Amino acid sequence: MTDRTAEVGLSADLLNEDLVDDRDREIMTVNVGPHHPATHGVLRLVVDLEGEMVRELRPVIGYVHTGIEKSCETQSYWKVIPFVERMDYVSYFFQMEAYCGAVERLVDLEIPPRAKYLRTIFLELNRIHSHLVWLGTTALDLGAISMLWYCFRERDKILDLFEMATGQRMHTRYFQVGGVIEDIPVGWEKKCMAFAEEMPIRVGQYEDLLDRNEVFLQRTKGVGIVSRERLLELGVTGPLLRAAGEPWDLRKATPYLAYPEMDFKIPVGTVGDNYDRYRVRVAEMVESSRIVKQALEALPDGPFIADDRKYVLPPRSELSTSMESLIHHFKLVTEGFRVEPGEVYYAIENPRGELGCFVLADGSAKPSRVHFRDPSFVNLQAFRDMAVGTYVADMIASLGMLDPILGGVDR
Amino acid sequence: MPDAPGLELIRGEIERDCPGAVLATSFDRNQPTLVVAPEQALDVLRWLKEQPGQRYGFLSSLHAADYLPNEPRFAVHYELINRDRVERVRVKAMLADPGDEELPEIDSCVELFPTANAQEREVFDFFGIVFRGHPNLTRILMPDDYVGWPQRRDFPVGGEPVTFTHTEARYD
Fold first, then answer.
1. pTM to 2 decimals?
2. What is the CATH code of the structural domain delimited by A68-410?
């Protein structure tokens, strides 16, 4: 090999090894985001780089803080539902369930079995939807563009199901205090069953695309490992924790809705790297389809909303015949229902972990405080542990695998 | 969940190790709650986390609420969970408003529960409750130069000017 130093005009001094080392050791601070497709929302990262290695990392959040919790305090209880849906905009059904469940516990309202099953079906469809958005965008970060189109194809089918039953594709406002706002239309069950049967086949196809893809495996295996103990210290829940081998799922631990009657497994990983996180979420999609199928098969007949006129709107048909119903309707729509003073914390398993809703009632028709313990917000604290000591490219991959939804982080 | 007598047993045991720490208990809507003195909140949390037989080792949520017009006005809520027995217990530290621009203070539990780091910053940001010993107590969701504590009940809603590129000068 010939010495090309003179040719390119570099002095021999510059190629002196010590100097080269010094240059590599230089720490450079780089700003990533807040507006960048790879940050999965409006997240800013201040990253200290040594060459291509991440040495320190500070996430800066708050760019999409819209004061939803404050706004909730000025709404009557039933008007809060569309507000809280817009926090985590990918898993809106979960926010509705957390909030409605908390209010139902505050007023001690039992919801009918059909409503429980319907809610379970919609929550699990929403879980698949959320994981599909995650899989599509994260695979895109790793260079697998076709995954995005396949995932969004199935996601669209779920949105079609939502639209058919609720009239809206996103932010459906379908859950109400006491049940769901209306029954599912004729033909919906059949369509949903067809989807639940198709979904595991589609998941198999995704796995065929990714599981033996050398690039994908190299980029995910052994990357972003955080130990189980450290994750628990940081309060991380959901697929991230399960990927590290901890079978903690609130659907099993503190069963709610129709989950006690469902037969499903909790997928867990072993080492807790990005590959395990991918495997856990993909397996969860299959389990969710199984839950949807079982719930559809066992869907009980009966009312879809509780028959308590103090909290639930009377059926439209009664308004022209019953004075009582008209009065209840008028009171509920104008003032809303009053809730005895008290406070409730109700937690459910959202696609990202424990979604807790704290509602404080002061006796009036408006909540005095609504707080959401959003799993994205808490899980984001583990990002530093995942990314420090890896390459920049792996940091982006780890962020995708962490799956934060910034609307939920900032609220 | 510990049931109501179970909660009283926990209270009795805490009373032996940290006298005077638990001010009251409540079992409203099946949610066991220990109301603790703010100075001893950290001791109670440590006791609940480390005492054999209790082991409420996972802090699932930390949030605050403003009980205006009640006194003491603020409360910091710690939602603890024992993951082996799947039992939740809430620890609630009531804090009085010191008045005159001064901020209420409580000990930070970040060393005990590292997960509280971001959540304590959130409480500070929205309620102006200072966590003594927190490694980096700065605003987290509101802008760094924001004035006021927006989640307090006496903080008005609305009237917040929105800055866009060409309206910056108007709101300076």
1. 0.89
2. 1.10.645.10
